[in-house]
Design goal:
The chain is about 70% helix and about 0% strand. The chain folds into two domains: about 70 residues, 434 Repressor (Amino-terminal Domain), CATH 1.10.260.40; about 80 residues. The C terminus is likely disordered. By secondary structure, it is an all-alpha fold. The chain is built from seven helices and no strands. The radius of gyration is 30 Å and the shape is rod-shaped.
């Protein structure tokens, strides 16, 4: 296994050097401690965490499975991590969707608030006609109601299902004997 660890460190070092980035820069880009990068490249880290290997692979544009094999992980370990990466992507997609829904809700609430103000103003004009220069006519009421309807119409539309994230729950569990 020691030979593979040295090959792992060598492969990471060569890829990093080819991209002309320092260990510290690789660590920053991969969100990993720079000491860990140094230990992996020097062959001092016996079996680096697969999540760290995955981050390094992404930054250096290396094949994660190759790095994992060099680190001594078997295919089952690699496949579990790959499904974890897919789940991470799904979480990211769901997060984007969630914030799009929140934005949509805020827009609809703003529409509702605007309509509430218009309605309150209309009620005030109808209840207190003497406070206004001219009386509110039936035609004025119809115009105001049409304005309210146009403001509320987007709120009645369903949320676009094309924006729904594709959620594919992939749970891998080891079979128990």
């Amino acid at each position: 296994m020691g030979k593979n660890i040295n090959l792992l460190g060598q492969k990471i070092s060569e890829a990093r050097t080819k991209l002309k980035i320092s260990q510290r820069e690789l660590a920053r880009l991969a969100h990993v401690d720079s000491g860990e990068i140094s230990r992996i490249e020097a062959g001092l880290r016996q079996k680096p965490n697969v999540l760290i290997l995955n981050k390094i692979a992404k930054v250096l544009n290396l094949d994660f499975k190759d790095l994992s094999n060099l680190a001594g992980y078997n295919n089952e370990d690699i496949n579990l991590n790959s499904s974890s990466n897919q789940n991470d992507d799904q979480v990211e997609n769901f997060t984007k969707f969630f914030f799009a829904v929140l934005k949509d809700i805020n827009k609809r609430r703003a529409n509702d608030t605007e309509c509430q103000k218009i309605i309150m103003n209309l009620i005030d004009r109808l209840e207190n006609p003497d406070l206004y220069e001219k009386p509110t006519t039936k035609k004025d009421v119809i115009i105001i109601l049409k304005e309210i309807t146009s403001i509320l119409t987007p709120n009645l539309e369903k949320f676009d299902k094309a924006k729904y994230p594709d959620i594919n729950i992939n749970v891998n569990s080891k079979k128990q004997s």
